[in-house]
Specification:
By secondary structure, this protein is an alpha/beta fold. It has a single domain (3-185, 239-278), classed as 3-Layer(aba) Sandwich (Protocatechuate 4,5-dioxygenase, Chain B). It contains nine helices and twelve strands. Strand 5 (96-99) and strand 6 form a beta hairpin. Helix 1 (17-30) crosses helix 2 (51-68), helix 5 packs parallel to helix 8 and helix 6 runs antiparallel to helix 7 (225-235). The protein is globular.
């Protein structure tokens, strides 16, 4: 049986079981849902930075799902393709993933159903060095102990939309609860990222968050996956636009007409709040449910 072991435990999140659970509980307490959630939740968008920066927003999405659905059978997690350069979505189709909280089994039946559509290929090796899915799995293990996962890396092209639609169609006829999660951070702003169209400093960070991130958020909440992909290519406001577009397309296929923004922040705001210091760079984070 194929087993994927963690590559960023001890870096992006704690490496020990006890510390991992403690940090998850802290993230869950840090933010709470404001406003009325959708009656059912079929998908979400989460960030994937280190938990100290974006864990609270990821936790917010998973806790919203838990509030609406005590039991989820499978989380289909669309990941950003930071190091995977294939054009076809790559599925981790068999076996399990290991985290400090133990083993999360892959939903092999769902994987096969997706592979049968021709919208994805089996690509276990593609997941070896990618963190965008891994950092979500412990939240799932903590809140949904028996849930399986279906990890899929998604390139930023229009195949993401057909993938999401295919997953949505499969879910609509499945006799189990499946929630889709798209993993992406938003605008990477600053000299380190080679993106400084508004210069540097607090006013530039404000533009990155208030204007550039908002373009992505509007497309996501409006269930416009084509606009989301095109906007990311033009505005550099997401590192995992394919993953997000797949989640949006799946939500739309499942009958959703609008998303809900739960929270939006950036790494510079987090640093100022938690550490009392600023940075020459900033990365945006959003928590959205559908």
């Amino acid at each position: 049986m194929q087993t994927r072991r963690p590559i960023v435990a001890g870096q992006f999140y704690p490496a020990s079981r006890v510390s991992c659970i403690d940090e998850i509980k802290r993230c869950l307490k840090e933010k709470s849902v404001r406003g009325s959630l959708p009656e059912t939740i079929v998908a979400g968008i989460v960030p994937h930075a280190g938990w100290a920066f974006s864990g609270a927003l990821a936790a917010l999405v998973f806790s919203a799902v838990k509030e609406r659905h005590e039991k989820v059978d499978t989380f289909c997690i669309f990941g950003a393709a930071h190091g995977y350069f294939g054009q076809v979505p790559a599925v981790y189709s068999t076996g399990s993933w290991i985290t400090p909280l133990g083993q999360a089994d892959v939903d092999e039946d769902l994987a096969q159903a997706l592979l049968d559509t021709g919208q994805a290929v089996s690509g276990l090796d593609a997941h070896g060095s990618e963190h965008s899915i891994e950092v979500q799995v412990p939240f799932i293990q903590h809140l949904f102990a028996d849930a399986k996962i279906l990890p899929i890396l998604v390139a930023p092209n229009e195949r993401a939309i057909s993938l999401g639609e295919a997953v949505g169609a499969i879910i609509s006829s499945a006799e189990k609860k499946v929630v889709c999660i798209g993993s992406t951070d938003l605008t990477h702003y600053g000299p380190r990222y080679g993106f400084t169209p508004m210069g540097v400093g607090s006013s530039a960070f404000d533009w990155a968050s208030r204007v550039n991130d908002q373009l992505f958020i509007d497309a996501a909440v409006g269930l416009e996956p084509k606009a989301l992909l095109a906007g990311a290519a033009e505005n550099y406001n997401a590192c995992g636009p394919g993953a997000a577009a797949a989640a949006v397309a799946a939500a739309k296929k499942l009958g959703k007409t609008k998303g809900m923004l739960l929270a939006h922040t950036n790494s510079n705001e987090v640093m100022i709040k938690k550490m009392g210091t600023s940075s020459p760079e900033s990365v945006g984070y959003a928590a959205i449910v559908f």
